[in-house]
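Re: the 273-residue chain
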Amino acid sequence: MYDGLCQHALFAHKFTGKERDAESGLDEFGARYYGSTLGRFMTPDGPLIYASKDDPQTWNLYSYVRNNPLNRVDPNGHLTIIVPGTGYSASDWNMNMKLVNEAKERFRDSDIRILNWSGKLGSNAISEGAQTLRDMVAGHDFAPNEQLNVITHSRGGEVALDASLGIEHPIDNLITLAPTDWSQDYNLENILNWENISVAQDWVVSAASNQDPKHYPHANNLVLNAPNYGHISAHSAIWQNDSLRNLWWNFWQEHAQCHEWFDGKTNTVHGCI
């Protein structure tokens, strides 16, 4: 029995270690399914946002890693980075937190990363965190039209917006939770979809800000009501409370960058992630 299970596990995972669906014969890559017999993804990638006239391979929405699988890999078709706020605890912000599992499901992305920055106060800490975020994005081998998603809390939003000035890949979906004021400029053209979420009872946001961070003119703004939380605890409730997270996830879904994906088990093409 043990040998049989080992053999099944060995042969079920094929190209780049991805699991093959027995019924369809397709390999699960998270955002899309891959047909090994064709050497192609079964559905096209998103719009031609990153197409270049100097690189014909960027116009092929079905290709896998620009037809160079010996030197490149595409783990799942997306990259999602979570940026915690000032003074965050690694025991709270880790791969076991509910937010990580929800991001995997909502973005259809198995590659979720938590940015490990100092979490200290001050502009230097923000700048250093922003550079760490840029380096993380630069180290990911994006295929044409792969999405970059970033979720932030508190001053983690300042880290992400600071990083947008020099980041080499557009942020397809940016979700800033309970943001505080940032003095740095940001590159709006590099942020394709921005959800800015706050809680009305949160006094931390107001106390740490020189302006009203609950409403930014370039974002889709949502202010939630959490009367059962105090003015301090409301700041964390936005990512800790199941009901509040569900509300802002649904708000994000209304504005999400569309990305078609194919369900090999039901042979159904879905419109958006």
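Residues 123-138 form the longest helix (16 residues).
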